[in-house]
Design goal:
The structure holds two protein chains of two kinds.
Chain A (H helix, E strand, L loop, with lengths): L1 H33 L8 E6 L8 H11 L3 E8 L9 H10 L7 E5 L5 H14 L4 E7 L3 H11 L4 E7 L13 H19 L1
Parallel strand pairs in A: 1-2, 1-4, 2-3, 4-5
Helix pairs in contact in A: 4-5, 5-6
Chain B lengths: L1 H23 L1 H10 L10 E6 L8 H11 L3 E12 L2 E2 H11 L7 E6 L4 H14 L4 E7 L3 H12 L4 E7 L13 H18 L3
Helix pairs in contact in B: 5-6, 6-7
The chains are: A alpha/beta, B alpha/beta.
Chain lengths: 197, 202
């Protein structure tokens, strides 16, 4: 019994030592795990997911993919914002403002307020539009979860994920700021929920 | 050996009793836990009602603030306007809603801001509200957010302002039955965690 305790103690000390020496790469790896980024490939559409809280970074990425010929259409997903407005009411004028032509844009409104309900709303609409491969555009900490969600909600649809820089989050430094820790926490709890769903 | 066995039996019995008590009293216990998140002050006159950003539904927070205004408890309404994307702020939408509900435009103070948390919101808004002559105000937010929001604003005001709480109903969280819906459980867990981190000032 005493020997087992001594060994357990040694193991704990050893693990603590390893964690102390290598906490930075460990935390970076945990942050980077949330944020996989696919390289662009030819797809039917880029889908700008709901939840934009910057000045149109997701839309800019979609416009870049469209102009570079990776996608033929841009889908604007319109989840529900406060006061009963849909995000497309904001994103569509913004898209036209940055020079996208109306014919390249498809709007899909829903009452979704979370990634999962958004996927459930989008999946049949994307299928109906004849899209077989799409590039989802979202924020960094959502990327891993989106792969899980769309595998479950839209089987048969080829899904790539591109992310745009997320204010206050970097896989290399997230633990230094309160907002970074918050984004990391939300990213991981969301991912666990998506896995278990 | 016999001592160990009897201790184990006592432990199992104690756990069983605790489990049964928990089952029998789960409703009042969970209700009490839910109510810990909600803060509501007895109504009294104050300079303003501050509508916090993060409205989830169709303008419940603004509606609650306008109610305070129309009943004469406050003279002005401060609208916190977090960024909601594409160059727009929540106050772009809460302001016309407040006007539509009957609050005169001259008594509304919108503050578009880029804060991403209640703490940052407090740090941005309090000096500006103080400069506008506000010395006492109601924090108007979703019911589950009021206890934490009041604590954060109270701490950030460093005793210079009187901070009251006024909860707006939120469909996502019913303090008396939150455990019966997935959203309710999610809101409760998340808000409880935020309460702890806010208390520990993390």
């Amino acid at each position: 019994m005493a020997r087992l305790r001594r060994r357990l103690l040694m193991l704990v000390v050893l693990l603590a030592g390893v964690a102390l020496v290598s906490y930075r790469p460990l935390l970076t790896a945990a942050g980077a795990f949330l944020t996989p980024q696919d390289l662009p490939e030819k797809c039917d559409a880029a889908v700008v997911l709901r939840g934009e809280d910057t000045d149109g970074l997701r839309l800019e990425e979609a416009a870049r993919l469209y102009r570079d010929g990776w996608v033929g259409k841009i889908v604007l997903s319109g989840g529900l914002l406060p006061f009963g407005i849909h995000e497309t009411e904001l994103s569509l004028p913004w898209a036209l403002k940055i020079g996208l032509d109306r014919e390249s844009l498809v709007t899909i409104d829903s009452d979704a307020t979370a990634a999962w309900t958004e996927a459930l709303a989008l999946a049949p609409e994307l299928k109906k539009a004849g899209f077989r491969a799409v590039i989802l555009i979202s924020s960094e900490t959502d990327a891993r979860g989106l792969r899980v969600i769309y595998r479950k909600a839209a089987p048969g649809l080829r899904v790539l994920v591109r992310t745009v820089p997320q204010p206050h989050f970097s896989a290399h430094t997230w633990w230094h700021t309160r907002e970074g820790r918050k984004a990391f926490f939300y990213g991981w709890t969301g991912l666990l929920r998506d896995w278990l769903r | 050996m016999a001592v160990f066995r009897s201790r184990r039996i006592v432990t199992v019995l104690a756990l069983l009793v605790l489990g049964l008590a928990g089952f029998a009293f789960h409703r009042p216990l969970l209700t009490a836990a839910g109510r810990l998140l909600v803060d509501a002050d007895k109504l009294e006159k104050a300079d303003a009602a501050l509508v916090l950003s993060g409205e989830q539904g169709n303008g419940r927070r603004v509606g609650a603030a306008v109610r305070l205004y129309r009943e004469g408890w406050v003279r002005r309404i401060v609208l916190s306007g977090a960024q909601i994307g594409y160059g727009r702020h929540e106050s772009d939408f809460s302001l016309p809603r407040a006007v539509a509900l009957g609050a005169p435009r001259e008594d509304l103070l919108p503050f578009p801001l880029s804060s991403r948390s209640t703490q940052e919101e407090a740090e941005y808004l309090l000096p500006r509200m103080e400069a506008a002559g506000i010395r006492s105000f109601y924090v108007v937010s979703s019911n589950f957010h009021t206890a934490r929001a009041r604590r954060i604003f109270q701490r950030a005001s460093k005793g210079r302002m009187r901070v009251l709480a006024f909860p707006a109903h939120d469909d996502a969280f019913e303090p008396d039955s939150w455990w019966q819906s997935e959203w309710g459980i999610r809101v409760f867990l998340l808000e409880s965690l935020k309460q702890v981190t806010s208390m520990a000032n993390l």
